Structures are given as C-alpha cells and as structure tokens.
Amino acid sequence: MSSVRIARTALRARSAAIARPVQRRGYADAVSDKIKLSLALPHSSIYKSQDVVQVNIPAESGEMGILAQHVPSIEQLRPGLVEIIEEAGGSKQFFLSGGFAVVQPDSVLSINAVEGYALEDFSSEAVNSQIQEAQKIASGGGSEQDIAEAKIELEVLESLQAALK
Amino acid sequence: MAFAWKAAGITYNRYLAIAARVVRRSLKEGPRLQAERRGEMDLRFAKWQNGKQGENKSLGEANASAMAEQAKAE
C-alpha cells in the first residue's frame, strides 16, 4: 500500500519536472557562435550548410555583416563581393552577380545567386575593355532597352573593378 | 527603392541575366569558355490557333519586344 503511494508521488514529481523544464540557461549552451552557410548557384553549390564565423554581404540596403543569431531577414544583393570568414580564421571572397540572401532563424544563412566566382578567376583586362564598350553604348543613340542594359553592365563592371583593385 | 532599368520595361529576371552574362564575360579564358555555355538560350515557340500552327518565333526576341512595349505603355 505504502509502496504504491511512493510510486504515485514519484510519478507526480516526474510529470511536474517535464512540465517545467530547468530554468537555468547559460549563454554558452544557448548561443552557438557559428552560422550554417549555404551559397548556391544554379549550376553548383559553393557552400553546403557549412559552419562559418561571419559573412559580409553587399545588400541593396547597404553592406551587411552577418554573425550567428542574426535577426531573420531577406536581403536583395547588389552585384558585389561576398566575404566569408571561416572557422579556421581565413577568409574567402566571391564576386556574385546578384541574388538574394535569406537569414533564417537558428543561424542558418542561404545565399542564392546566378553567377559567383572567386576573385582570382577574373581578368581585369576583360573588365576594363567591357567598361569602355558599355560606356559607348550607354551614351550612344540605341534603344531605351539597350541603354538600360549597358547601364546595368556598367554597374556590375564598376563593382567588379573596385573589387579587383 | 527605384531601379532605373524598370523604366525601360526590364524585368528583374532580365536584370539578373544581364548581370550574370557580364560576370561570365569578365572571367579569365579557362573558366570563361566553360561558363559562357551556360548563358546560351535558344528557345522557340509558336502559337496554335484553330488547329493551325502560327509563326515560329524566338522566345528571346519576343521577350525583348514585349519589354519595349511595356516601357512605352507606362
């Protein structure tokens, strides 16, 4: 009889413990200091849910540095340089042609772009010759669409030229 | 945020395609030759009406003229 009562109280004590989890929560267990980064292009993925320390992105609203536990947000990217600071301490730079960065809860960051290459893959001569060509079209007497396209090209090329310096 | 290219009827999709094209062209010889193949698109379409196939048109050209018309209408 008494053993049954003990079992019951034990059961009640356990269910109470389940209902109210331990309230103590240290900063170290609550906050991971890494971001899970996925950097995807239509034809390849450069990062696949890899832990990194910080990612600097060229958002349309301005340059942004993203660390762990960032507020969830969606940012449109300008054509520009993305800098990734990896766990080992080194940093990598990629030039992206434009796309979106999505900061998800729990330190998950997804960046989508159409084209992205490491800086050493670009040729500054090709950039300079294209700038001259695009400037000619932009100030020429082509159709409204041709001029607008040349201006988009100029925006990309000037950002690329600044990144290559 | 106002984008100048929107006034010319250019869509965001087209904007991204132009930006990607110019990035591919700026690459060094080796990666460029491989990458430029990705930019090629040659789709054609025809409208069928009353059981007859209409004129065969290039999708790229049709899109460009649609964007020009869009810009004029605004």
Automatic annotation (TrEMBL), chain A:
Compartmental location: Mitochondrion inner membrane
Top-level taxon of origin: Eukaryota
Keywords: ATP synthesis, CF(1), Hydrogen ion transport, Ion transport, Membrane, Mitochondrion, Mitochondrion inner membrane, Transit peptide, Transport
Domain F1F0-ATP synthase subunit delta C-terminal: 122-162
Keyword Cytoplasm: no
Cellular component, GO annotation: mitochondrial inner membrane; proton-transporting ATP synthase complex
InterPro entries for the chain: ATP_synth_F1_dsu/esu, ATP_synth_F1_dsu/esu_N, ATPD_C_fung, ATPsynth_dsu/esu_N
One Gene Ontology molecular-function label: proton-transporting ATP synthase activity, rotational mechanism
Primary subcellular site in the record, as a coarse category: mitochondrion
Pfam families (UniProt xref): ATP-synt_DE_N, ATPD_C_fung
Gene3D superfamilies in alphabetical order: 6.10.140.880, F0F1 ATP synthase delta/epsilon subunit, N-terminal
Domain ATP synthase F1 complex delta/epsilon subunit N-terminal: 36-108
Family according to the record: Belongs to the ATPase epsilon chain family.
Name of the protein: ATP synthase subunit delta, mitochondrial
Gene name tied to this protein: ATP16
Automatic annotation (TrEMBL), chain B:
Any single Pfam family the record assigns to this protein: ATP-synt_Eps
Region: Disordered, residue numbers: 47-74
Family as reported in the entry's similarity comment: Belongs to the eukaryotic ATPase epsilon family.
PANTHER family referenced in this protein's UniProt entry, alphabetically: ATP SYNTHASE EPSILON CHAIN, MITOCHONDRIAL, ATP SYNTHASE SUBUNIT EPSILON, MITOCHONDRIAL
Name assigned to this protein: F-type H+-transporting ATPase subunit epsilon
